[in-house]
Amino acid sequence: MQTLKLLFVLLLISFEARAKDVQECEEIAAGSHICREIESFQQLNGYVQEDWRSVKVINEHTGIESGGTKALPALSRLLHLDLSESGGLTLGDRGLRDFTQLEGLNLTHCQLEELQEEHFPRNSSLRSLDVSYNDIQLITGKVMDRMPRLVYANFSNNLVAEVEINAFKGLRKLEFLDLTTNEQENVTLGENANLRYLSISNNNVRDFRWCRLRGVPNLEELHLHSNWLENLDMGLFFATPRLRVLNVSNNNLYEIKANLFAAANERAVPLQLLDYSSNNVKVLEDLVFVKLTNLRTLNLWLNQINRIHPRAFQGLSALESLQLQGNKISALPDEVFSMLTSLERLDLSRNKIKQLGASIFGGTLLRQLTHLNLSHNNMMELHPLAFSGVPHLRELRLRGNKLTVLDLRMFAPLRRLQLLTIGENRLEEIEGDILETFGNLSHLEINNNRLSYLSSLQTSEYLLQLRHIRIEGNPWQCLCLDEITAWLDKRQVGYARPSSAYYSGRKPLCVVTPMEQCLRDLEAVRAHGLVESYEQI
Ligand SMILES: *[C@@H]1O[C@H](CO)[C@@H](O)[C@H](O)[C@H]1NC(C)=O
Ligand SMILES: *[C@@H]1O[C@H](CO)[C@@H](O)[C@H](O)[C@H]1NC(C)=O
Ligand SMILES: *[C@@H]1O[C@H](CO)[C@@H](O)[C@H](O)[C@H]1NC(C)=O
Ligand SMILES: *[C@@H]1O[C@H](CO)[C@@H](O)[C@H](O)[C@H]1NC(C)=O
Ligand SMILES: *[C@@H]1O[C@H](CO)[C@@H](O)[C@H](O)[C@H]1NC(C)=O
Ligand SMILES: *[C@@H]1O[C@H](CO)[C@@H](O)[C@H](O)[C@H]1NC(C)=O
Ligand SMILES: *[C@@H]1O[C@H](CO)[C@@H](O)[C@H](O)[C@H]1NC(C)=O
């Protein structure tokens, strides 16, 4: 009996194994198939049925080769071929010529060193070609001319050092050309009437002249980040009058010149996004962006900016996001942001700003500004009226400064504030009437200051919306801290973070005092030397 059973099981297993061998292809959607362990186009040709439209080859143990000289007619049924997981493609005499109807071809990770014209059918129907992650060095016009209907070409992550001039000229439908992560030194694209998206990011381009883009008058996005550019010549919009996105981040650009944005007929230019981050710009001159009336996003983070002229941002009336973090700004001229009437987000964190004057936002109200980040600066003072022009702030970050006092007048206008971080400052006291203005606050950070008490919370209607608070790292009197945490617990406000050193017992949360109750008097607290004794623990 036992032996019989075993035999039966063995039989079953061998039957299943054989079934799997035969079923190398499975249908994953109507007309769409995945085929495994396919060694050649000839083998694939044997599987492709009348109604097949799309095949992805997945090989774990082998690559795939085109081989043979015999025509493989079934392959002409396919509209999409994905060999990105085929383990490498070896193109023999016929190359991909049997795929006469192909519209989408994915050859990423195929270990290709070159593309030859005889590998592609004449007048192919290809619209999308992805050959990223290969070792291609050269792009020639002869190969590209075989694909007159191409819309999308992705050559990223190859070794392309040379693109034949006008290689893409005949491709009248081409809109996207990605040459990111290659070896190009010069841009030799030549003409292409309809190109809209071009990336030559992460190449070795040192010297770029916009006139080289004269052949691509419809370009809308240009990505040149991570090259070796040191300066940009004038007149970008003469060559590409429709440019909306320019990314020159992570180069060695040491200035921004107004004449870069010069355009024919003094027209307004359409640029919406300018990413100039991670360069070496030191100064922002007056009127440098004045032409950019459609700009929405300006990224200037991680430069060396130490001077901003008062009218540097003039003209940017559509700007929504201004990123200046990680520069060397120590002072902001009066009115510098006052013309940015559409501004929603301003990031000035990680600079060296010493103080915030009364009128950096000028007399105008910046009604759209909801996010302001001033964390990690050197601010010892905020002018009491510094935020009077930005009453709609929802998030204000002041963490990591040197503030010693807060003034009621700073926060009184900020009725909509939902998030406030003032952790890592030097506050000794937050007055009760300031807490009272925080009616909409749901997230508050006052950790790592010199606070030893908060004003009496018992009866107050403070902080009704509060959900999260950070309080650790202050020399709280233990009695005061007990009151605070009892109050927070009652309100179901989250404050403890078990992973932090303070809540796991590695750092002290409060100071035991001889007093019988929480002492709410700054002078008396100072006389007891509470801050000093906490810092010594
Ligand atoms: C090609 O295949 C790769 C890997 O499967 C995938 O990441 C990529 O998006 C595909 N390309 C196109 C154009 O679909
Ligand atoms: C290419 O194919 C299209 C559509 O099938 C056809 O109209 C055109 O004449 C062909 N061009 C050449 C050069 O064969
Ligand atoms: C080109 O391919 C790379 C690598 O897969 C991908 O990250 C990139 O987004 C693609 N480019 C475009 C324009 O789709
Ligand atoms: C790139 O252009 C510069 C001058 O425009 C030239 O000196 C250099 O040889 C060119 N490099 C290549 C690889 O063609
Ligand atoms: C610009 O390029 C940088 C790489 O240096 C990249 O991180 C950033 O996302 C790009 N910006 C846009 C808007 O695409
Ligand atoms: C500054 O704050 C904003 C939100 O107000 C946030 O999105 C941004 O990431 C912060 N900047 C840095 C450098 O952390
Ligand atoms: C909370 O914000 C709303 C507008 O978002 C405002 O009308 C209201 O007065 C604020 N509440 C308090 C208590 O400040």
UniProtKB/TrEMBL annotation:
Q: Which InterPro entries match?
A: Leu-rich_rpt, Leu-rich_rpt_typical-subtyp, LRFN, LRR_dom_sf
Instruction: Say if the entry is tagged with keyword Ribosomal protein.
Output: no
Please give an example of a GO cellular component term from this record. Answer: membrane
Q: Which residue stretches, if any, does this entry annotate as coiled coil?
A: none
PROSITE patterns per the record? LRR
Name the keywords, alphabetized. Answer: Glycoprotein, Leucine-rich repeat, Repeat, Signal
Signal sequence region: 1-19
Entries under PANTHER family matching the protein:
KEKKON 5, ISOFORM A, SYNAPTIC ADHESION-LIKE MOLECULE SALM
Q: What is this protein called?
A: Insulin-like growth factor-binding protein complex acid labile subunit
Q: Which organism is it from?
A: Drosophila madeirensis (Fruit fly)
